[in-house]
Amino acid sequence: MGEETINRYNREATFTEKYDARIEKFGTKDVMPLWVADMDLPTSPAIQEALSTRIAHPIFGYHHFSDRYFQSIQHWMLRQHKWQIATKEISPINSIVSALNIAVATFSKKGEGVLIQTPIYPPFMAAIKHQHRKILDNTLVLKNGHYEIDFEDFEEKAKEAKLFLFCSPHNPTGRVWKKEELEKMARICKKYDVTIISDEVHADLSYHDNVHIPIAMIKEARDITITLNAPSKTFNVAGIVNAYAITHNESLKRKFLTLFHRYALIQANPLSMAVTIAAYEQSDAWLKALKETFLENLQIINEKKDKISPIKPLFPEATFLLWLDCRELGFDDDTLNKWFITEAKLGLNRGSSFGKAGEGFMRLNFAHPKQEIKEAIALLENAIDFF
Description:
Layout: H1 17-20, H2 22-26, E1 32-33, H3 45-56, H4 67-81, E2 90-93, H5 96-107, E3 113-116, H6 122-130, E4 134-137, E5 141-143, E6 146-148, H7 151-158, E7 161-167, H8 179-191, E8 195-199, E9 225-229, H9 232-235, E10 243-247, H10 250-262, H11 270-282, H12 284-303, E11 312-314, E12 321-325, H13 333-342, E13 346-347, E14 349-350, E15 361-365, H14 370-385
Helix pairs in contact: 3-11, 4-11, 5-6, 5-10, 7-8, 12-14
């Protein structure tokens, strides 16, 4: 990314949630906002150029999804994840969060169970609660700084589940699930006829030897899985792009899309298509450099981890989100959040918003220029000194 990773971009008054919603979120503007999961880093030059080119054309009428749009997704999945998909298996959708809600409405009835793994991205729980379904929580187990699945509990919960809202890679813990873990979950879901809705929006952002495997590539999961994805997280374009679903099973796909069509929720956006094509056709090298920047930021934090003890960073295998274990501070949830705001001057996500299993934790977004990460850790170090 070169010098672009060093530049700071003033995002205030650009209608951005991260900055312009600070008073609403934290009660003050006097915090460094490291919460909502977008980046304070520019998107790829190819995307910027594609947008400029399209905006230069002054007509923005109705559009349709082009063959090139579908092919760009198809080729990206093959190149990045060795996943062979047909273009007919790709379904444009408006957003992943709306898709979670529609999946719950489509594949379960009021009072029936939906399986999740907390701590989890809050819209997973919201999708279940809003539609009066039963949350079946297969709580992840933290062992020696690493989250694991309790498979005995997973199977018990699967017995009464209609669907499984799966997060892969996992937000907020940063886990990249191993093939053996995916195979076990897939076998259990197939055994009990549980549909899998897999949110894989962080799939491109794995590190080191951690290789993301789409769960639909697992034999037992292929015909029971709907995979949700988008360029939004990888390319920092969440405010402009649509998402898409990938479904191998044609009948499952048709059932899933019923409510989208009923309420006219699928519309082609010319800017979204331009972004998706530029991202998936011309931004491979940019993504490689971005991940190197993320690893450098994690190294900055790692070098200071002893200085911010008793807070323990749980370094992720994927995503640009760092899960902080703050339990040794001894604060209750409200006090912990207030301490970060008033003492550390940092605006993070409350761990409790990810479920009861997140109590005592905070989530930090490290997709910022390196200097800002250094400043954030210095603020946290200073707060610890006065603790």
